[in-house]
Write a structure and sequence with these properties.
It is built from 18 helices and no strands. It has about 475 residues and is mainly alpha-helical. It has one domain (about 5-455): Amino acid/polyamine transporter I (Up-down Bundle).
Length: about 475
């Protein structure tokens, strides 16, 4: 590893990387865990057969989710640099520098979108706290959600609040900011989810929802479900954004990348499964439709929570949980931008100055996205989408798949010829099959899967 590169990044990033292996795991898990697990995963599962979707999703996580996540960690640890500069650093030339730029750009485009949706979580946490949606049915809740997300000033304030909170965390650096908060937020998230699971499983009729989510109906497994589950795997794990490259650069040199990747994948998948166990038993217990789509969390769940004992507490608890999950991801998204600014300045800007610049840029991006939804630019359409909707579509169907595809080809084909130690050989006999399997997966299985997802997302063929 280029020690001077890592030391330079540590110097710029508040003198040190992560202080403990547990800190790496919790921060990396927090980066992966977010709205994709608690907001998007349940509604995708609800629309695609419940248990059938879950089964295919788990297979996708094992087959190409873990190799891609480990790829990012290995790149970051080897380069000792952020997403922006890592590929040039370890390839030794500028031929792969475009991938660093592309990954950083992908993070920037999705960050504004993510903060806007996190702002919805802030809004609904407030709504739950003041109990503003008490007594509303699903139709009224849908109108309420539409009215809230159409309120320009409210959405601006709610979107900027998590930006400022995230900036405050990053101000203190890697060990004192990211690691310290991850050690608080991640255990809190799991404790809250466990309590919610216990609560919903005590509801009469919850067993029907549990069977819908955990018992696969194999007749529901179609090519379309497979493609959707594969795409959700990318979104939930945040692979293709290069977030783990930056966190990999902060890792202790003696940390096992394979074991770390496995634990992060396990925690991320556990949160998605727990989210389904929280939502579907409650939805079925009160007779709601699990296939409501993106509005499941913000429209159906408030209706469901009103029917529960201690409805007010349940509502506050759930939306606080959702906000914490979102915050653990905004930290990693904004950190990539902060470190990229430091590297672009060639050391002229320190962390605090870079955080201030990143905060200003992201707040401006949030404002642009909100105005494209509700304000003066709401009539502006590109390819039939508002800027807000286009950013999500562009990242999930084009930018992330291309980034993930390029990373897999980089590690699978290019780096073994340049640096055989990047993907380490195991000295333990029972693990010696891991390296050739890992390389084979990145060379063939992952690229084919990504190309199919990419073509399906663009509508070149519809399954």
């Amino acid at each position: 590893m280029r020690a001077n590169s890592r030391d330079e990044l540590m110097e710029q990033s508040n003198k040190s990387g992560f202080n403990s292996k547990l800190g790496v795991i919790l921060a990396a898990a927090g980066s992966a865990i977010g709205l994709g697990n608690i907001w998007k995963f349940p509604y995708e599962a609800g629309q695609n057969g419940g248990g059938a979707f879950l089964l295919v999703y788990l297979i996708c996580v094992i087959v190409f989710g873990m190799p891609l996540l480990m790829t990012e960690i290995l790149i970051g640890r080897k380069a000792g640099k952020s997403t922006f500069s890592a590929f040039r650093a370890i390839s030794g030339n500028n031929h792969w520098q475009w991938l660093g730029w592309w990954s950083a750009l992908t993070v920037f485009v999705i960050t504004g979108f993510y903060f806007v949706v996190t702002g919805w979580c802030v809004d609904y946490l407030y709504e739950a706290t003041v109990n503003s949606y008490a007594g509303m049915g699903t139709n009224e809740l849908l109108a309420h959600f539409t009215a809230n997300t159409s309120n320009t000033l409210k959405m601006l304030i709610c979107g900027i609040i998590p930006v400022l909170i995230t900036a405050a965390i990053l101000w203190f650096g890697v060990s004192s900011g990211i690691e310290r908060l991850s050690k608080i937020l991640m255990p809190l998230l799991f404790i809250m989810m466990t309590l919610m699971v216990i609560r919903v499983l005590l509801l009469e009729g919850s067993g029907t929802g549990l069977r819908f989510f955990l018992a696969p109906d194999f007749s529901q497994i179609t090519p379309a479900v497979v493609m959707t589950a594969a795409g959700q795997c990318f979104f939930s794990l945040s692979v293709g954004l290069g977030l783990m490259i930056t966190y990999g650069a902060y890792m202790p040199k003696d940390q096992d990348a394979t074991k770390t990747s496995f634990i992060v994948i396990l925690l991320d998948t556990l949160v998605a499964v727990l989210a389904g166990i929280i939502i579907f038993p409650a939805v079925f217990a009160f007779g709601f439709n699990p296939a409501e789509g993106p509005q499941l969390v913000f429209v159906v769940l408030p209706a469901v929570l009103q029917h529960m004992t201690f409805a007010w507490i349940s509502g506050v608890f759930f939306f606080l949980l959702l906000f914490i999950a979102a915050l653990t991801s905004t930290i990693s998204l904004m950190e990539v931008i902060v470190v990229s600014i430091m590297e672009l300045s060639h050391g002229k800007l320190n962390r605090h100055q870079s955080v201030l610049i990143a905060t200003a840029v992201i707040c401006a991006t949030v404002a642009v996205y909100v105005l494209s939804m509700t304000g003066v630019w709401s009539g502006l359409k590109l390819f039939g989408h508002s800027l807000f909707d286009l950013s999500d579509t562009l990242v999930t169907t084009f930018m992330m798949p291309l980034s993930a595809l390029s990373m897999s080809l980089f590690i699978g084909w290019f780096m073994p010829l340049q640096d055989k130690d990047l993907v380490p050989y195991s000295q333990k006999r029972y693990k010696q099959w891991l390296r050739p399997l890992f390389i084979f997966t990145l060379r063939w299985i992952v690229p084919i899967a990504i190309v199919l997802i990419f073509l399906n997302g663009l509508g070149i063929f519809n399954l």
